Amino acid sequence: MEDIRFSTQINFDINNVGYISVVRNKGFSIQFKSGKTIFSFVYVKKGKMRYAFSEKTFTATEGQVLFVPKGLPYKATYLEDDTTMKMITFDVISDDKLLFLTNPVKNDSFDFEAVFKSVTPSNMRNPVFLMSKAFELVYLMQGNNLNTPKKYLKIAPAIDEITRRYYDNNSVSYYADLCKMGESNFRRLFKEYTGKSLIDYRNSIRTFEAKKLIESGECSVQDAAFTVGFNNMSFYYEVIKKQD
Asked: Is the pTM of this model over 0.85?
């Protein structure tokens, strides 16, 4: 006789799930200067695509999957005619430090491909089905040794604090203390993981949030800039120009 029981609690939630299928010819490109407002898993069903981020460039070919974090600027270019791209998009609500969702990752695992192959014309508009696929992709991403290397977990408190309170003008030493690290080691590890200094990283989040406020019509450009933590408009425009 065997009695197996299992109970758990997921510490994050997924919502705003969507599905996109696009076919483009060689040379077509699209740029997101402030990144997208939602996470994306991109599957190249046919052809070849290039994704250029500020610090990394990936070339994805048939059968490969790329994870694109939200808020991360990039340019996508189709490299062959009739390149077919399928995408599952979603947002995450979480108080946990899901650091593996902050960096773009390319993976050509069959498991990832199988998730997209299970999406058909009859179920692609079913929100419950798509949500289950988004959860499955996130699960696979964690289980395929793509999660955050142990040494970077040291800076998790800083990443979490900046993400939640990006409008605060705390010093680098404040975040280093938060991580119980010396400032020089903290700066090195933070730059190594994110590809940016802490100030540049925080400013990228601020400009992303400011753009959302402006586009929603809630704020003027000036009000949005001050709301997200910029103390003067000259510096705000300087940061925007640098990111472009």
From this structure: no
